[in-house]
Design brief:
Radius of gyration: 23 Å
Function: Catalyzes amidations at positions B, D, E, and G on adenosylcobyrinic A,C-diamide. NH(2) groups are provided by glutamine, and one molecule of ATP is hydrogenolyzed for each amidation.
Pathway: Cofactor biosynthesis; adenosylcobalamin biosynthesis
Oligomer: single chain
Keywords: Cobalamin biosynthesis, Glutamine amidotransferase
Number of strands: 29
Shape: globular
Helix content: 25-40%
Family: Belongs to the CobB/CobQ family. CobQ subfamily.
Organism: Actinomadura rayongensis
């Protein structure tokens, strides 16, 4: 079996990443060597590969689903927004520029070559490459410079499946409209649809599926049922708006309440996924002082704009609440950008270019931003347990006080630049025990929860979704043979006609 396919979506968060991961796991189970690919990803959730390259967390997770080592060419272009108008451009795992949307256009020709070469390299090394689009392929204002959706599909002659989220409503209009807005040459590669997050009786959906096929000439290849708890390495903060799984029953006498500050430029919030798997830990995202009041632990997560998000924290009155907590010896954890905010001073001539600003002064530390970006996969020890993590930051922290991982602790305040530390089971349990003791809570971590095992179980569940609910015969045919010839063209508002 050999070939490629592209998974597009009617919107962001329609389920492209989940379907891509599911297809990767489904193929890997059959002994097919498979790799994920996303030409251009805009995300503040990233990961460091074994060789020190930065890629989107979703592509890292998809490589795990495929049973292969994550690599920079699986996500050759990563955009990390620092404001509403500017993003850091990461190419093949290394930052190369900080640009606005108009400046980014000047990079497109060079990046298109890099994207096409990366895809060609993967296709030469793997039997199948499962590509993921970005946003919607029907963003007609961006089509001329597109290199991740139909631009990629056209360049590499790859068939495309469009995923629609029925839970949001309007899925038939979204699927039909997506096809209708595309140029005829783009429509010729749209081979079918997948409906995601369906709840209810399938027979009630069938008349709509039949009519959609009549209108577009394309089949719906599967209807994926609603699944609670598939929060796998989301690319953007839309995932934070979705309902989170209900907390499991506590292993001890009490639930541990964790409030995570939802910064405007929150990054690597996947750090908290390991807490979601802990029975009795209730995680919520906070945007006001009242959201922090009854928390047993407040977490300041990563930020792509540390100085600006610190200012936001002060403007919202949340900084005062956090400072009050520290004085009352109530637990606070800062990770990466959140750790930097807890320091005495921050010297930033790189991201915000605001020079020296005052931190929250809750840890004996000082931060200086460097032009060079630290990308690493460190190992260490805390609470007597080994810890593996990863680092992605410009800010270098110099600290005194009691050591904590690579950072420090002062009273009930902890800080570290290490992402992913909480995924280490023994360390996570020991840290939560310390938090509970400090917070005077009768919380006991479960002794047998394995985050990695739960992750593998979830990836298997994604593979099951593909095997059980998609037309895998049709999927195989698309991968091996490409889009069927003579697919119908759907003019906006007009009758269906045949392609030439």
């Amino acid at each position: 079996m050999s070939g490629a396919i592209l998974i597009a979506g009617t919107t962001s968060d329609a389920g492209k990443s989940v379907v891509t991961a599911g297809i990767c796991r489904w193929l890997a189970r059959q002994g097919v060597s498979v790799a994920p690919f996303k030409a251009q990803n805009m995300s503040l959730n990233s990961m460091v590969t074994a060789d020190g390259a930065e890629i989107g967390r979703a592509q890292y997770m998809q490589a795990q689903a495929a049973g292969t080592e994550p690599r920079a060419i699986m996500n050759p272009v990563l955009l990390k927004p620092g404001s509403d108008r500017r993003s850091q451009v990461v190419v093949k795992g290394r930052p190369v520029a900080e640009v606005d949307a108009l400046q980014y256009g000047a990079f497109k020709d060079e990046l298109r070559t890099i994207v096409n070469d990366s895809l060609a390299e993967l296709r030469a090394q793997y039997d199948v490459v499962v590509c993921e689009g970005a946003g919607s392929p029907a963003e007609i204002n961006l089509r001329a410079g597109d290199l991740v959706n139909m631009g990629l599909a056209r360049a590499a002659d790859i068939p495309v499946i469009v995923v629609g989220d029925i839970d949001r409503g309007g899925v038939f209009a979204s699927l039909y409209g997506t096809v209708a807005l595309l140029e005829p040459e783009d429509q010729a590669l749209i081979a079918g649809f997948v409906i995601n997050k369906f709840r209810g009786a399938r027979e009630l959906l069938e008349p709509g599926l039949d009519q959609l096929k009549k209108l577009t000439g394309r089949p719906t290849l599967g209807v994926l049922p609603w699944q609670l708890g598939l929060y796998l390495d989301s690319e953007d903060t839309l995932a934070l708006e979705a309902p989170r799984p209900d907390a499991q029953a506590p292993h001890g006498e009490e639930t541990l309440r964790v409030a995570v500050v939802r910064f405007p430029r929150i990054s690597n919030f996947t750090d908290l996924d390991a807490l979601l798997c802990e029975p009795g830990v209730a995680v919520r995202y906070a945007a006001s002082p009242g959201d922090l009041a009854d928390a047993d632990l407040v977490v300041l997560p990563g930020s792509r704009a540390t100085v600006q998000d610190l200012a936001w924290l002060r403007e919202r009155g949340m900084a005062d609440e956090i400072e009050k907590r520290a004085k009352q010896n109530r637990p606070v954890l800062g990770i990466c950008g959140g750790y930097q905010m807890l320091a005495r001073t921050i010297r930033d001539d790189v991201e915000s270019k605001q020079g020296q600003v005052s931190g929250l002064n809750l840890l004996p530390a000082d931060v200086t931003f460097h032009q060079h970006k630290t990308l690493a996969r460190p190992k260490g020890e805390a609470y007597g347990h080994e810890v593996e993590a990863y680092e992605i930051h410009h800010g270098i922290v110099r600290h005194q006080g009691e050591p904590f991982l690579d950072g420090c602790r002062s009273g009930a305040v902890w800080g570290t630049t290490w992402h992913g530390a909480l995924e280490n089971d023994a360390f996570r349990r020991a840290f939560l025990e310390d938090v509970a003791k400090t917070a005077n809570r009768k919380f006991v971590p479960a002794p047998d929860v394995s985050f990695r095992a739960l992750r593998e179980k979830t990836l298997d569940k994604l593979g099951d979704l593909i095997a059980d609910h998609l037309d895998t015969t049709a999927l195989r045919s698309l991968i091996e043979e490409g889009a069927p010839k003579g697919l119908k063209i759907v003019p906006p508002g007009g009758p269906v006609t045949e392609t030439r």
